[in-house]
Amino acid sequence: MKKIIALALVLVMLFALSACGKEEAPAATEAPAAPEVVETEAPVEETAEPTPEPTPSGIEPDSGMHTFKSDVNGISFEFDSKFVAMQNPVGNVTVFAGTEAEIPFCTISLITGNSAVEYLNELVAATKIEHADAIVTAAAEPSVLTFGEKEVNCIYYTYKDEAAGGVVACAYFAEDLEDGNVVVYSYTALEGETADVEGIVTHAIETFALAK
What we know:
Blueprint: H1 2-22, E1 65-69, E2 75-80, E3 84-87, E4 93-96, E5 105-111, H2 116-131, E6 135-137, E7 143-147, E8 150-161, E9 166-176, E10 182-190, H3 195-207, E11 209-210
Antiparallel strand pairs: 1-2, 2-11, 3-4, 4-5, 5-10, 6-8, 7-8, 8-9, 9-10
């Protein structure tokens, strides 16, 4: 009898072990994936390049004397390339003696319809209207100056201009050409600071030519 009971206990234990073996272990949980890091390039700051100063076409600054030739009205003259020469649509030229497009500057222009003296007399009358009470030294009648073999008519006047920084000096030189036209040279600068523009105008008068 004891053997039967012992055998029964063994069978019960075997069934119990078999039942335990069938239970599945819980599946291992996967750790959440780390977020993907996206590398972005830092924005490159663009620095604007400074605007170059205007220079005459084909001229290296400070390259010595240069002959300017207008491709519109044919005027030609020499100027120092350390200055800046700009041509307007009708062919007349402004030479800036400073670092910006403002005074001091010179102009070389070709005009028609007047003689040199007539042009300057009209300009004298116009300055009295334009500058009125600001005039310091009034323009007188044109006087004749000699530049080498050339005789050129000239007027000179000054006026106060707070925006310009003081008293402004203006001189106009007009020369009658053989073809009946008139070439006008002028300069505008603060009084006492006219050395550069006087040199530009003097050399322009001495070297002026008109293409045929």
